[in-house]
Write a structure and sequence with these properties.
Blueprint: E1 3-6, H1 13-30, H2 35-38, E2 39-42, H3 46-52, E3 59-60, H4 78-84, H5 86-105, H6 112-126, E4 131-136, H7 144-156, E5 174-176, H8 180-184, H9 188-193, E6 200-207, H10 221-238, H11 242-247, H12 255-258, E7 266-273, H13 276-297, H14 305-322, H15 333-345
Parallel strand pairs: 1-2, 2-3, 4-5, 4-6, 6-7
């Protein structure tokens, strides 16, 4: 068993709590001498890594300026390389390089990250679109919208410009999404006929990673999937008029309910096939989009002080949760009440102080 502990500072509470639990499990069975043989670290803090018991030969460093949400292409991706192999990881990195070169060299009017970033600014800042849905039509990217949530919202969820002044427009879209056909049976109703403007990014591929025949045995299930994706983008764009609904033989009283207004924005990203290289390109596409939006909004896309404050507050509140003899005094009545409720639910009776 090999544990890879990834922590830039080697002090992140959640990461190090899990690492300590794994270490105890190992040493209880094999003793302290087993730690160097079963642990590797990816970190910039070699002193703390050494204190944990991990030897320098099993420590992988990276640059101090690399933020966590931008780090999968660095040594932080060690676990990814272990899972897919060195050659495939090299393809993954090459995908990043291809998109980096595209962003650096292609004119603005044809530059994919620039266009995607400007579209986001256009709808968020000028049309009041608070969120963007990312809908991959492949289950292999089921967690990609969640990955983008940290990348985009931790980077551009800011209300102060880099010069210290408040922003004067909306920033930081709320990213969310689900794999294609799952979403069609969940929230696409709101996308098509709801009162909120929600731009959509569709992600699909021409060639499947695997495929099955359709119900009649003659067609391609992947083809059905792509047809659904294209149908969604078409209906969002062009909708369906009352005249078209009537022409279908719809009873007059149902016509207003079946009209689709259209003019709902979407972007379709169509790749040849999902490979490590195309995944690297996708990640880099959204990384550079984040940078473009940060420049336009005048904010620093590379800090996260809101996250840092949450970590500090968690360290301060922790002892009140796991020490029943500690007085409940978090500094505000709301948090104090929640701590008392937590202690009661845990069966700890010292809740009235």
């Amino acid at each position: 068993t090999l544990f890879v502990v990834v922590s830039k500072t080697f002090s992140t509470l959640e990461t190090m709590s899990n690492a300590a639990a794994a270490r105890r499990w190992l040493t209880d069975a094999l003793g302290e001498d087993a730690v160097p043989h079963h642990f590797a670290a990816v970190s910039t803090n070699v002193e703390r890594v050494g204190a944990f018991g991990i030897v320098p030969e099993s420590t992988f460093g990276f640059w101090e300026w690399v933020g966590g949400r931008y780090s999968v292409g660095s040594a932080v991706g060690l676990a990814v390389m272990a899972a897919i192999g060195r050659d495939r990881f090299a393809e993954f990195l090459d995908g990043f390089r291809k998109l980096d070169n595209h962003f650096r060299s292609v004119p603005l009017e044809s530059n994919a990250p620039v266009l995607l970033g400007l579209l986001g600014v256009w709808y968020a800042s000028f049309f009041g679109a608070d969120s963007r849905a990312v809908l991959p039509y492949t289950h292999d990217l089921a967690r990609f919208p969640a990955y983008l949530q940290q990348l985009t919202m931790e980077s551009n969820g800011k209300s102060i410009r880099a010069d210290g002044n408040p922003v004067e427009t909306g920033t930081g879209e709320v990213f969310w999404g689900e794999p294609g056909t799952n979403g069609q049976h969940a929230f696409h109703q709101l996308l098509h006929q709801g009162t909120r403007l929600i731009p959509v990014d569709f992600i699909g591929f021409a060639q499947p990673t695997d495929d099955l025949p359709t119900l009649d045995g003659a067609g391609s299930m992947h083809g059905v999937l792509v047809a659904n994706m294209l149908a969604q983008s078409k209906v969002l764009a062009f909708g369906k008029t009352s005249a078209e609904v009537l022409a279908d033989g719809t009873p007059p009283e149902l016509v207003p309910h079946k009209v689709m207004p259209g003019n709902r924005p979407s972007t379709t990203i169509l790749g040849t096939k999902l490979t490590p290289s195309t995944l690297g390109q996708l990640i880099a596409l959204y990384e550079h989009q984040v940078f473009v939006q940060g420049v336009v909004w005048g904010i620093d896309s590379f800090d996260q002080w809101g996250v840092e404050l949450g970590k500090v507050s968690a360290l301060e509140l922790g002892p009140a949760l796991w020490d029943p003899d500690r007085p409940v005094s978090a500094g505000d009545s709301s948090t104090d009440g929640l701590i008392r409720a937590y202690r009661l639910a845990r069966g700890e009776r010292n809740c009235l102080t």
